[in-house]
TrEMBL record:
GO molecular function terms attached to this record: zinc ion binding
Database matches in InterPro entries: Znf_GRF
Protein known as: GRF-type domain-containing protein
Protein keywords: Membrane, Metal-binding, Transmembrane, Transmembrane helix, Zinc, Zinc-finger
Domain GRF-type, residue spans: 30-75
Phylogenetic classification of the source organism: Eukaryota, Viridiplantae, Streptophyta, Embryophyta, Tracheophyta
Amino acid sequence: MCFIFSLNRYLLLLKSKSCLPNSKSTMVRCFCGQMAIVRTAWTDKNPGRRFWGCPKEVSIDVDSTCGFVGWIDPQMCERSKSIIPGLLRSINKLKTEVGKLKEENQMFKYDIGKIKEEKSKLKLYLICSWVFFGFVFFLMK
Ligand SMILES: [Zn+2]
């Protein structure tokens, strides 16, 4: 905790010298000695809060990072911490629904294509039948 606090003070010093994190000249190294990258935390405690983190891969199963965390953004107020996760869940739920609706839309487009194909076939059959009946009518005269 103390280390993170001193790291944050160090980062604040860096911020005052350059416009962190937009400046490409800011260099922060993680515990592995690699150039840290800007990541965004999406936990309930720190929703949307940016931090310097290890550039190694982070996946759900395996976390191969060195655990380096250097916060860029200040800690959020309790109200933000309570509201933002709910909003994020709503957004994710809506995104899921949009995905399902897009799939459904694709299926409807496919069905419409088939219906149009069938419509043009039926139109052709109708025209052929009119020609046939006209021909029969002509022969009966
Ligand atoms: Zn690292």
